[in-house]
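Anyone? Bumping this.
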Amino acid sequence: MSSTSHTSPTPASMAANPRAAHARSVTGRILAGEGAIELTAYRAGETLSSAVHGVSRSGQLVVADIPNLFHSLGGFHTADDIEVRADIVKDSADHRLALRLASLHLLGTLRWCRDTEEVGALGLQGQLADLVQDVGPRVRVGVISTERILLHDCSGVTAYDAAILADAATAAPSTDALHDAVMSTAAETLADVADAVLDDILPGWTERLDLPEDTSVVADPAHCVDVDRHCVTLARFTGDQGWVVQVPLPSPAHAPSAQDGVIAWRHLLDSLPARRITAPRP
Amino acid sequence: MTTAVRSCAATSCSFNNNADCNALAITIAGAESQASCGTFVQLDARRPVTSDAGRVGACHRLECSYNSDLMCTAEGIEVTDTATCATYTVA
Ligand code: SF4
């Protein structure tokens, strides 16, 4: 897959290295609970794929599982520390496109909490807090200690030290409204946005996407595959060719609100040359 | 350094040609303690560490002795008929 950066014109308020800022943001979102985690106790040869994950307020990577409901914890049912590999995979936001967008990988040590007091001291938030509140003490909660976290995405492999867990513990502004705005944009308009980046009319980054011979996996000329407060990621298809196209959003100078992303997205659509608009904006 | 896929016995894979791997660069994924070839199925936006044909583009088996930040450092690997890496070793 080849990589191309399209840098002009650069949105004035983007960070000095917007691609690195975006990768860091995606890593934080995945650590905080996006994607699906699979734990592998590689010495025991056991895998646990039913857990949910997130980061506690104190910046610890936490997993939770409900054993004895649909399955047993198997080799993970132990009071001892367990050497694990954690893989968290994140797929396309548009579920009609079977595309793996990014994954996080780490080696660490899993230790299950002994009792509810220990769980309470973690300061759970998000889906972990909801699960513990809904299900109660039957939820098994564990902490994974790690020193190195690797993001594998369309720009390659990026390594982070454990300090990124503290970043992920801080709630980022919601992107739900932006997500809705991008997902409801017509595929033809998304294709116009992607083409504007490919033609250097809008700033952004593009990567070639290897397509299988069976191109029936592709439904539309363009799909939204991720929405981040820094950047919208699209997949663009023409005939037997495909690209992943990342379009940075100009960020506001003031503290971002939930609506700022939507406004930035609309400005971006308005900045497309008129001839490119091939479908009505929602 | 990039690692060659010396042989691949997953003949039902569409990238397989007479036990040779024709994919641009494969990704070794992981599931159920088997180092498996993740290029077998869906679209993948993750860029390989190398894009040379028939090479290990990335390997997610971090615990393998040959793994260095998702890059395989083995001289060459062999992929089995169930698309798993037969060279996988844990120290
Ligand atoms: S030898 Fe190890 S690092 Fe190399 S592809 Fe196989 S499992 Fe991955």
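Late reply, but here is one note on the structure posted above: Residues B 3, 28, 35, 56, 59, 61, 64, 66-67, 72, 74, 77, 85, 87-88 surround iron/sulfur cluster (CB under 6 Å).
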